[in-house]
User: Which sequence fits this backbone?
């Protein structure tokens, strides 16, 4: 049974302040918990229903993780999901290490993406398109927010991220590095020849790429519109741009 | 001031049953209300803050719509949005008329899309890509659900829809009509030559296209994956498929 202190600790991780203080975050629901046990994340504690634990013992015991058996009601009380009939894991956050796009690699730069749901969706999209590195501005939503983790559908285990001053990062790149940025008035991505490596910058939900980052964008790109909608959601736009990038890469 | 009966009537429209009974639905927030006043929808009543009404009188008075001035607190109490400092309109639903894709036209078919947020996003994406007709299975979320209207960001005014038996609809199409469907094991959309007209079927969030509709799909299409994510959200997939369709159409 969970102690009062354990409950308090787990509930504190709903908040960014305590996630940073303790260096830990929550992973909730059957699929996400299974994925995190198959990843290189270090797991502090597993809280699971008896049924989930029995079905997944082989997976969860590999890391010799301390396990607490709990009811569905307990899981929902200590966690953030409306319904969770499986498990919750307390997982160690990773070190904030700088990331550079390698040759033949695409990395994403997120400039002030505020909505956790959008960020989670972008992790999932990045994972689908084989993007392994995401550089986030300090103002971008916290990737360890339970909503981000949940929306990523397990993809948080296969994508790496770094938080920092993305304008400064971009200012230190060499001249030959391709930096694409999503704008409403750029080149048509259906005809633009994307290179095979570099960075794609996506901006804030309302205001797009900010003035500090904009000067470092070498190529402004736009998804052509055929109708009346003023814009696309930033997750949707990220997917369409990465799809065009991959599609062009395929053709060369 | 709103009467008790008006409040009761407006609040009843949160529910599908009463929207169907009264043939009316709610449009909330500044942008959506402005868009609906510029559309061919018939508007029963406008409830607005004094500031919104003053700024938009020219727009709202064209239809000679009855107007009630209300406070922000009132708007939030009668509507569904957490915050609404502008307006709410009660709008007449449209007749459920059958839709056929014309020559050089793409129409969407939604087979059991359950989530209102996804449906709203799909309306916005359809609008972006110039898709004007959406055929929905009876089990697809109600397009008049306030969450759908809100997520569509005004695009509900530029897209038409029909609800009915989509399998039966498809069974009555001629032999030469292109019916594409999104599956996880179809042809790669990066190399597939899309035609310039026809239907694109998108299936349920968890189970994809159902067994009643599947036999009528002539070409199974798939977005190629380059990473570890098992799937893409149905809204994201719709955008990427329509983008590929438009891109191919551009090239021919």
Assistant:
């Amino acid at each position: 049974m969970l102690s009062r202190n354990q409950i308090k600790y787990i509930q504190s991780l709903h908040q960014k302040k305590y996630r940073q203080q303790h260096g830990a975050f929550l992973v909730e629901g059957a699929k996400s918990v299974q994925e995190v046990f198959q990843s290189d994340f270090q797991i502090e504690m597993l809280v699971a229903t008896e049924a989930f634990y029995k079905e997944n013992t082989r997976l969860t015991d590999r890391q010799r993780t301390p396990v607490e058996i709990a009811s569905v009601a307990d899981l929902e009380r200590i966690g953030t999901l409306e319904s969770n009939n499986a498990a919750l894991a307390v997982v160690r956050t990773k070190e904030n290490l700088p990331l550079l796009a390698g040759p033949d690699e695409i990395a994403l730069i997120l400039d002030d993406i505020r909505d956790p749901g959008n960020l989670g969706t972008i992790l999932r999209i990045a994972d689908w398109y084989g993007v392994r590195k995401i550089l986030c501005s300090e103002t971008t939503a916290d990737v360890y927010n339970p909503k981000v983790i949940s929306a990523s559908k397990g993809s948080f285990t296969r994508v790496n991220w770094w938080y920092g001053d993305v304008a400064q990062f971009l200012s230190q790149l060499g001249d030959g590095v391709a930096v694409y940025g999503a704008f409403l008035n750029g080149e048509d991505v259906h005809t633009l020849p994307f290179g095979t490596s570099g960075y794609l910058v996506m901006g804030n939900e309302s205001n797009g790429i900010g003035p500090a980052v904009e000067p470092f964008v070498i190529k402004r790109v736009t998804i052509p519109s055929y109708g009346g909608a003023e814009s696309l959601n930033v997750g949707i736009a990220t997917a369409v741009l990465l799809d065009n990038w991959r599609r062009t890469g395929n053709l060369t």
In short: The first helix of chain A runs from residue 4 to 12. The mean pLDDT of chain A is 95. Strands of chain A lie at 24-28, 43-48, 67-69, 87-92, 106-111, 133-137, 160-164, 179-188, 198-203, 219-222.
